[in-house]
Structure formats: C-alpha cells, structure tokens
Amino acid sequence: MCEDGFFDYLRGIDCSDVEVYAIPEGTVVFPKVPLLRIEGPVAVVQLLETPFVNLINFASLVTTNAARHRFVAGKSKTLLEFGLRRAQGPDGGVSASKYCYIGGFDATSNVAAGRLFGIPLRGTHSHAFVSSYMSFDEIADKALRTKDGSSTCEDFVSLVQKWLNKIKWSNSFRGIFSETNQSELAAFTSYALAFPDNFLALVDTYDVIRSGIPNFCAVALALSDLGYKAVGIRLDSGDLAYLSCETRKLFCSIEKEYELSYFGKMSITASNDLNEETLDALNKQGHEVDAYGIGTYLVTCYAQAALGVVFKLVEINNQPRIKLSEDVSKVSIPCKKRIYRLYGKETYPLVDIITGENEPPPKVGERILCRHPFQESKRAYVVPQHVEELLRCYCAGSSDKKQETLPPLKDIRDRCIKQLEQMRRDHMRRLNPTPYKVSVSAKLYDFIHFLWLNEAPVGELQ
Amino acid sequence: MCEDGFFDYLRGIDCSDVEVYAIPEGTVVFPKVPLLRIEGPVAVVQLLETPFVNLINFASLVTTNAARHRFVAGKSKTLLEFGLRRAQGPDGGVSASKYCYIGGFDATSNVAAGRLFGIPLRGTHSHAFVSSYMSFDEIADKALRTKDGSSTCEDFVSLVQKWLNKIKWSNSFRGIFSETNQSELAAFTSYALAFPDNFLALVDTYDVIRSGIPNFCAVALALSDLGYKAVGIRLDSGDLAYLSCETRKLFCSIEKEYELSYFGKMSITASNDLNEETLDALNKQGHEVDAYGIGTYLVTCYAQAALGVVFKLVEINNQPRIKLSEDVSKVSIPCKKRIYRLYGKETYPLVDIITGENEPPPKVGERILCRHPFQESKRAYVVPQHVEELLRCYCAGSSDKKQETLPPLKDIRDRCIKQLEQMRRDHMRRLNPTPYKVSVSAKLYDFIHFLWLNEAPVGELQ
C-alpha cells in the first residue's frame, strides 16, 4: 500500500499555478489534435494526467456515439437516452446522460441528470406498472374532469369499456382481437386518470396488436370524449418496423372512422436494444417510428467501447520533449503548441494546422504550407479565408490571461450540432469517410524530425 | 420537465418496509436465476428498479470480465487493473477497480479505490516521468545509503555511469547498444534514488532493447553494489512476447556474468491494450511476462460492453404476475421464488432449481424432478448430496427475519475465486462451454404455463 504521507501530500496539492487551455466543448475534433494543453509545476501536472484523461475519454466517446446515432436517425426524429441501467454506476449514468444530450439527443429518462443539468426529461411507464394491475377493481377514483373543466365524467372506467366494445366490432379492428388483457387495460386506464394530458402507453407487455393497441385506443378514445388528446405508444419488443406500420395503419383507420383529426399522427416511440445499425436497417425497410429510446448501445459505446486519448509531456523548462514508439501513431508531437482550423470559401473547415507556440499565426489570404506530421511526401499549400484558433484559456493559473467562461449546456449542444452540420459531407460518410486532414507547420515538421533523430538511440546491425 | 413536487416526493420516500434477498456477492450465477428478490410497497419498489439494475449490471459484468482474464492468464501471474483512464468518469473507475479485484485481480493503480476499499495498490512511473528529465544535472542529491545502513555512496550517478560503461562491453550486451538515451538514464537513476527498494522501470519510452534495458541494468547493478535488489521492468509497447523473452535472456546472462542470483528472476510486467485474446496468444507463443497491467479492455468490457440484467414484477398482493414477450428469453418467471443449488458426490454444483416460495425445499438424498422452464421435453431427476439455498436476507425491512452481514471485500474475492475453481471444467471452456443447467420445480413449471395461457390474448386467424 501507499504510505499515509502520500495521501496527505495529495490533500495538500496546490493547483493555483496550473493553466488549462482547451478546445471549446462541443467542437468537432480529429486525431493528433491536442484537446487540452496543461501548463504548471511538473509534479502537479503529472498527477493530473489520470483525472484529465478519465474525464475526457468517456465524455468525448459517448458524445460522438450520440452524434452518430443522431446522424443515422435523422434530424426529424426525437431521440431519448434510456441508458442509466447499463452505465458504470450512478455517476457513469449521469455523465452518459449529459454528454448524449450534447451529442444531439433530445431528452433523458435519468431524473437525476435532468435535475442536475436541466436536460429535458422523458420516459414512459414500465412493464411492471402494467403487470402490477389485476383488474378495474383496483381503481378507486374513477372520475375525470373534462379538459375544459366544464363537467366531470363520474365513471371513466365504464367509458373505456364502452369504447373497447365499440372498436372490437369497428372496421378498423375487425377480426384483430376477441379479448384483450384486462390487467393491461386497467393499468392504461389508471395511468390516463392520473395523466390525461400525457397518456403514452407501453403496449407490448402481453401482445402488441391483439391487446396493447386495442386497449390503448379504447382509453385514447375515451379521453377524446372528454377533450383530451392521447400522446401515443411505445413499442419495446418484436419487429419494430412491422409493428410501427401496423399501428400507424390502425391509428389512421380510427382517425377516419371516428373523425378524430389528430389520431393518425400520434407518436410512436420504439426501444429495445437499438443502435446505429438497427436504425439504419429500420430506415431501409420503412417504418412509422417518431421517437427512439436508446440505452445499452448508446451509453456503453458498444460499437467501440473505449477512446484512446492520452496525455503526454511535450515541453519542460522550455525544452521540447518527445515520446518515441515503434508504432508511429504513438509518437507524440513535441513542444508547446497552438492549433488553427483553416476554412476556405465554403463554410466547412479545410484542414487543422498545429504550430509552435511562438510561430506567427496563419493569416487570411496568405498561402501556408500544411505538412503531414510524419509522412514527408504529404503536404499542401492552403490559402485560408477564415482562421479559427482552437485552444482557448479556461484556467489562467497565476498568469494574467483572460479566462473563457463556460457556456450553458444548451449552448454547448447547439455548437456541437452546428459544427457537425458544417462538415463536408464526405467526411461524414458512415462507411469509408474521407479522413479530415490534420497537419503541422513546416517549422514544426522539421523540429519533430530533428528531435526524433536526436533522441532515438542508434543500434548496430550484427 | 418534472413537477418540483416529484423531487420532494422522491426525497421523502420511506424504504424501511423494503426487504432485500440476494445471492451472496462473489457467487457464480447463471441466466434466469434471480440475483435479488425485493419485497415492499409497489410504488417504492418500482422506483428502486433503475438504481438496483444500475448497481448490479456493470458490477457483475466487470467482475465476470476480470475472472475471464484471470482464467486465461493463469493462477501464477500477477494481474494489475490499470483502467481508470478509460472508465465512465471517476465513479465508474472506482467501481471497476473494486469489482476487478473481486473477480481475481491482485491490485489496482487507482489510488482512490485502494484508499476506499483497501485494495492493494501497484503501478509504475509514467512515460512523462521519463521524458521530464534532460540530464544528470537535474539530480541534486546524488547520495544513497547502503541497504544495511552501514555507509553512504556519495555519488550514485557516477556509479550508474560506471556500470553502463561496463555492461556496454560485457558479454551480455555486446553489440546491442552504442549509446543509450541519457534523459531516460537520468530518470531511472532519480527514481532509484527515491525508491531504492522498489525500482521498477518503464523501459519503452525510447527503445526497449537499445536503451531501456541497458539503462535499467546499469541502475539495477549500481543498486546491487549498495545491497538493493531491483524489482524489474514494464513493457508498454511492441512485441511483448519477443521483448519479454529477449529481456529475460539479458537478465539471465547478467546474472551469470556478475554472479547475482536474483537478477534472472526479476519481474517483467507487460501492458498495452491487453485482453483475453492477446493473453491467450502470448501463452500460445511463449513469453516471459510475470505480471500484466490491463486497462481498457477490462473496465470497458470491450468484448461485451453490457449485461442485460432486468427487474420484473413477479407477484403483487399474493397474486403471481408474468411478463410475456414474443421472445421466450424475455418471458419472466412469475411468483415469489426460492433458489437452490444442488450438488452431487463431487464438489461441483450440478444444477440450480427455482421453486415457489412455499414449496418444500429439495432434500439431500431425495430424488427431485428438475424441469427446463420453457421446453417441455427437457427434464431430469437429480438426487442431491448437498443443497445450498442461494437467496439470503440482506435487508429485513419491517420483518423480523435475520439479516446477513456483509463480509469484507477480501472474503467476497476469496468466495468468487473458490466458486470458479469448483465449477466443472467443461462449463469453463472459453469456446463452446457446456451450459450449466437452471431448472424449475415441476409445480412451478405447471404454474408458469398455466399463467402464460391465461394471460396471452387469443387472436383469430384470418
């Protein structure tokens, strides 16, 4: 074990001299670009390695994963994060909810995250809520006031039963069901009595088409009599493409049969182990889903469960440092650096360029050579029309630099969505995207390779 | 958003009537066996669904993943958990460290987890520590007392340099290096001055064979002159099988050349994106690694990033409840239940059997019919020689039941390791293991299928 003195040392650590430069949260970033630049006393900054890498890796990964799901689902769909139960403990779940929201999700079912960060909360009742009911006898208070408050229906339960009998012989449901599950109907009725303005029912506890949908429609039609509009249903199992299309057909048929203009457009939410691939497959097959609840594959980042962000010493006492490796992708780029994003005439970014701290910045309208950091032959001249410096000071330490303020979560989310929309389409392809180019200045290129030769030990061939 | 009143309600929730029955932590468990049985007021217990599932899913998954890594690595290797930087935030990392220890890891590099749970702490210095040094000039205090305290070497740095020159022309290193990286040598020397009893060096910052190993050996031999034994090295890149074998050869050669009996047996730790497959490949190829540091693939459970534990209502007001699904694996087993693990004459368990709460328990020496919960034809008679009831009371609520006490973490870990060792070997195969059988009593079988027929709505074929 550690000596106790080490914990005392940790407790007493003074971070007041540490400067933090970071790319604003919600920015699209690429491999090799430093996300943070930390300056400060070497012992303190080395102890910060693990906390910083811990805080950045999962946050960046799950935001990216959320953005990928949004990209496949399309802008018009509502995306709900349902992942708390699969996250790495309560805190893992809260991080997941926060960063999925930044990545473009609309809401979370994680009530704590909603409370902490003001993320919109959405969810439905559980299967257990449905199966906790046995019959209508459990509903004590059967009265419901009409939406306009003008009168009260004393027996909403009878109204629901009347509607169920009516639709059983309707054109819409002819031959679809003989008897629906009565405990499910009791649960839906009870839920509607409590939330007449927010009636969204989970319809797959027993059988979607033979029980869940007719029971839902009976309650929704009873609500309609009292001036309320039901919200819709959630499907949590089975063939979501087929079931959503069948449900939509029934909703539209009822709209027509009973002249209820909103009925066909009610919301259909789908869940059940959804991921990028299943969303893509649903799109290809055709479906009638309006909203997706996504959990497991989203928060665990199932398709790629880890991001490999690392923290490297690049300069000490004004001396550049390099970490070599047999694997070129693991060689670090030395020196205190600046990063610029260069834009052309279009709105999308062309290339990122990394320079030494004291090099003159790229100038609008002036040609600049952008070099691949490790491959000599890869280089291009760029004439930027707009130059954006990426690293900003978020913690000035004991320097007198101006500190950026942290924007509200909503603004970070807006930035993220906007940045993704600005990217050139071929960088955004799901299969074989064109890699976005990250370059170094000519001066930095020469310096990297000078150091590399200098630091790498020379062997003797036997 | 939620109404504020809901948060007030959550704050005021009274869990004093909730009873929790659980399988002791560290027990080997199988699909379909309930890990917990919760009893209490329906509203409170429904709100506990997400917290319980959140707390159980990742903990069980990562413990299993750790146990799988231990199984492949073998009992004799030291396993170090290095995953904090890839976990879902600080709390995710602490959970990962705790449960990897239960699953059979020996230590963690997560200092907070060590402090919180008494898990042994192990780690090495970082690459940044190596590259933070430029030269010997940075070492202010060069004196080191001998291990026995009898005298002081006033210039340990010169002693290291003397040894480096000596081994350069030794039989062991002939032709291997001409010059090693001097900042690396300064870093190793400085580390040895601070921790002469715990000198374990990360040797791949520049070049393992040409720089890291000779530098390490020079420092280790200088330490040896003063009576200290170096611990060993860590490899964090490159071909770990090859590099570990080459390193071992050099260590053994030095042992012989300088008559230092411990030198050949020094510890070689390997890290760098290790997982079950790479451990298996290393075993097949042959290697000289004594300890593995495993991070990313361990804590993110990369091979299967989520476990699908769910929480179902099975009984309310003494009435059994069932959740149906088109997918048989999602049909819940109704009723308040007991679970027994049946053992035969050997020490390994034969089968788990789930019964209704009030059925007589299986008896030693008495034949009992074990049925597959859903397939009518699958059944077997078992005559148990030992019967273990799995669910124990950990929270008695307002009942007068005796509560189990929670054992220390070390005991949970011992239980887990012992249970895994007891399993029949064919259940433990990595490829196509024989599934362990989980059964229900004849009475429960009949009841499940009676309820299923009763609850499932009947359709009409068109």
TrEMBL record, chains A, B:
Annotated metabolic or biological route of this protein: Cofactor biosynthesis; NAD(+) biosynthesis; nicotinate D-ribonucleotide from nicotinate: step 1/1
Cofactor(s) required, per the database record: Mn(2+); Mg(2+)
Post-translational modification: Transiently phosphorylated on a His residue during the reaction cycle. Phosphorylation strongly increases the affinity for substrates and increases the rate of nicotinate D-ribonucleotide production. Dephosphorylation regenerates the low-affinity form of the enzyme, leading to product release.
Reaction(s) catalysed by this chain's protein: 5-phospho-alpha-D-ribose 1-diphosphate + nicotinate + ATP + H2O = nicotinate beta-D-ribonucleotide + ADP + phosphate + diphosphate
InterPro entries in alphabetical order: Aldolase_TIM, NAPRTase_C, NAPRTase_N, Nic_PRibTrfase-Fam, Nic_PRibTrfase_pncB, Nicotinate_pribotase-like_C
Keyword check for Protease: no
Keyword list, A-Z: Ligase, Magnesium, Manganese, Metal-binding, Phosphoprotein, Pyridine nucleotide biosynthesis, Transferase
All residue ranges annotated as the Nicotinate phosphoribosyltransferase C-terminal domain in the record: 336-447
Keyword Magnesium: yes
Record GO terms (molecular function): metal ion binding; nicotinate phosphoribosyltransferase activity; transferase activity
Domain of life (superkingdom): Eukaryota
A Pfam family that the UniProt record links to this protein: NAPRTase_C
Function statement: Catalyzes the first step in the biosynthesis of NAD from nicotinic acid, the ATP-dependent synthesis of beta-nicotinate D-ribonucleotide from nicotinate and 5-phospho-D-ribose 1-phosphate. Helps prevent cellular oxidative stress via its role in NAD biosynthesis.
Homology family: Belongs to the NAPRTase family.
Protein name (record): Nicotinate phosphoribosyltransferase
Gene: LOC101489041
